[in-house]
Specification:
By secondary structure, this protein is mostly helical. The chain has 18 helices and 2 strands.
Amino acid sequence: MQQRSPVQIAQLYGSVASALVGGVVAAYAVAESRVDDFSFSDDGLTSVVITPQWAGATSAVVAAVGVALLHRWGRGGLASVFAAVGALVIALPAFVTVSASISVTLNAMGAGTFLAAAAYPTKSHRAAQIALALGVTATTLYFGAADLWRDRVARWSLTLPGDTYPVPSTVPVWILLAATLLVAGVASVARSGQETDDVDTRLATLGVVLPLAFTALYAWLGSTSTSPGSWVTAVVIAVAVTVALAWRLPQHDGRFILAGLAIGAVSISSISFSSDWTWAVPAVGAALALGIAVGWKRPMPQLGLGLLAVTTLSGLLDAALTTVAYVFVLPLALGLAVASCMPVAVGAVASGSVLPFTLTLFSVSATFLDPVSQEFGWSTAPLEEHGPAAVTTPIPLTVLAATATIVVAMSTIHLKRVRTAVVT
């Protein structure tokens, strides 16, 4: 048997590690940049550009544009530069004074650039695409686990005159350095000898239009001061736009975009872990690995999305049952759904993976529909730990709307598959 060269080894296995690390770092940076008092700002444009919605949308647009540029020119060296520049922008607050409000946009741009570099070597590489997608989505959904090993630094945008309240880098510099060496190194040797392809304008359009549309809906109908009626209207429009754009894509690409929409909907409830029950994190990992294994061997995207719907709907049940669903069922469903959808185009895996933090109507806006949250800006409930983890669920209306969103995604995937089969 012929021995593989170091370059071949890097292409086979390095792209998986690079995609996973790149996805985790980008998603973590976006989530960590959240400004603690964004819900209090009502200063026009400023009230939008410091929100998690703006951070997610900015990183998604930058990633989509970056993927299109790399796809067009197809140079590993350029992808390495993207990785270095993205990491440098994320790390900038560690070297110069940057206020919390400005850091949201800078950090998002860096995260999007870094994600584009990590996505570059994943073309036609199923395992690498699964790693990238799960790195982004799992980090976003289970970001609460980060409290087990770090004390988050508060980030305030409202300060006294002359006080910029500088913030640290969202990702420690030493982690960024290691991640950059990996992502840039793999990208530099990836896809050597392959010809570049024409950019799929439909994917590029979706990658830019969807985040901008979501941001407009957030500012118009879905901000933290929204009413239940306005929020539902925003969700309906967001789902309709996503379905319309996904329908125009090739079957597999559109399917993963819709899967990303469903994964975003399940973020309607957020999970946090108790420091006394860290075993719950390995349990999540085991369930995720099981889902990947099943989806790899026998792709069943509809079953994966169905389990996502069950998990979301559990928010209407007892707190203990909801916690079990989000600790054990959600990671199984996530691994199964993502693994079953791959491989797809690089632009599809990048744009579909970021939907959970690009569409924050579920993860952010819904939490402020409770009258107490709207009055005080945060929950007034006592912080108590119950068992291995705790799941925070908003009002029932939002849970039903999120579940309906997943059902719409499932139905659209089925209709698109049937239509494709009839045409061919």
